[in-house]
């Protein structure tokens, strides 16, 4: 629905993403399959969405043995790399603007920070509680028995002394997920092309859609949203020319005759919101999977409010307000007609605010 705005330097983004993986080891495991399939490992990790759709459709059309599928799942193990990938999406240096769910534009998705009250890692080692240790080090990396020994051996004079005891598999400062000032994610990363159907795109950068839990876990799950390449490209927020936002318009349909929107608001049951797809079955299916008509109608007062403001503040009045407020102002843009319009209608880039598409469509398509 809402296209992901990737950073302009896509080459650097791909290079940084590849640093998350042990490429040499993965390539050695994948080499026999590359000869059989023709797909290079690096392309599977960073190829664009059009390429990933080709891979997905190829995989579905070929017979994959259980042995091959097991190998594919072990090489492209999303669960093992999920923390690193989520951190990659949360890193501001990578240019992702995580604001609202890219499937529905109804829920905010974001990261949040949590700081521990320790001055450094050694302070943490010597004073952290069991629950704080477990927040960063699960039993697969630090068993209960070893954690008990960690606590019994305190205090440690240095991290070097702690590391020499080999409680952990590697030095504590090398654990990427361990930080005294950590970011946490309030979003899901969905595989728009289901990894359960095609495991070899389970780690593909341009197969990830930052989304809310309702869209990912309750509605889409592992459903296939399209059947043909053309339809996949139209609906995917990860495709550079995704057309959903432009092709589909949210419309407010009155169910009774009213002379003004002010009158309509008095009886708000007399209208409904619909997604006008112009009969496109791919878009219709997308809207059905995510139940957008039903979910949006719960919030239809937002649409009515925008239309009411359009009636109350037509262009000539906005210009008059701009002229009056600009008297004596040196900054000509501070109270420009466009700025007045933005302030009244809260018109922003579509991914910045929940229901931004709804607001924009009410302004320009109703």
**Largest sheet entry:** 2 strands, antiparallel
How many helices? The count is: 20
Mean pLDDT: 90
- Over all CA atoms, what is the radius of gyration? 26 Å
Strand content: 5-15%
Calculate the terminal CA-CA distance, rounded to whole Å. Answer: 19 Å
Which regions have little confidence, pLDDT < 50, spanning 5+ residues? none
- The assembly state of the depicted protein chains is single chain
Form type: globular
The helix/strand class is: mainly alpha
Series of secondary-structure elements, N-terminal to C-terminal:
HHHHHHEHHHHEEEHHHEHEHHHHHH
Count of distinct structural domains = 3
Helix content: 40-55%
Count the E strands. Answer: 6
Strand order of the largest sheet: 1-2
């Amino acid at each position: 629905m809402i296209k992901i705005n990737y950073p302009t330097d896509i080459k650097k983004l791909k290079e940084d993403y590849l640093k998350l993986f042990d490429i040499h080891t993965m390539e050695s495991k994948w080499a026999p399959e590359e000869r059989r399939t023709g797909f290079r490992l690096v392309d599977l990790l960073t190829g664009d969405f059009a390429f990933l759709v080709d891979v997905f459709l190829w995989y579905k059309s070929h017979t994959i043995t259980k042995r091959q599928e097991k190998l594919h799942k072990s090489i492209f193990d999303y669960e093992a790399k999920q923390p690193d990938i989520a951190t990659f999406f949360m890193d501001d240096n990578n240019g992702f603007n995580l604001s609202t769910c890219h499937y529905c534009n109804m829920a905010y998705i974001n990261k949040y920070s949590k700081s521990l009250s320790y001055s450094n890692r050694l302070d943490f080692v010597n004073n952290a509680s069991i629950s704080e240790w477990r927040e960063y080090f699960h039993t697969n990396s630090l068993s209960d028995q070893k954690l008990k020994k960690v606590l019994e051996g305190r205090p440690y004079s240095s991290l070097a002394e702690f590391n020499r005891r080999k409680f952990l598999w590697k030095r504590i400062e090398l654990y990427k997920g361990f930080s005294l000032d950590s970011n946490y994610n309030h979003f899901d990363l969905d595989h728009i092309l289901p990894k359960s159907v095609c495991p070899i795109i389970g780690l593909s950068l341009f197969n990830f859609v930052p989304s809310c839990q309702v869209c990912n876990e309750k509605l889409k799950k592992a459903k296939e949203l399209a059947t043909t390449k053309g339809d996949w490209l139209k609906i995917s927020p990860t495709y550079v020319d995704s057309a959903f936002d432009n092709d589909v318009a949210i419309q407010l349909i009155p169910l009774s005759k009213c002379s003004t929107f002010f009158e309509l608001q008095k009886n708000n049951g007399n209208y409904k919101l619909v997604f006008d797809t112009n009969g496109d079955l791919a878009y219709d299916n997308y809207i059905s999977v995510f139940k957008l008509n039903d979910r949006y109608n719960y919030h239809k007062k937002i649409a009515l409010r925008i239309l009411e403001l359009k009636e109350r503040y037509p262009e000539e009045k906005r210009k008059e307000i701009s002229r009056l407020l600009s008297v004596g102002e040196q900054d000509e843009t501070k109270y420009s007609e466009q700025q007045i319009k933005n302030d009244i209608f809260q018109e922003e880039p579509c991914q910045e605010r929940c229901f931004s598409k709804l607001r924009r469509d009410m302004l320009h398509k109703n």
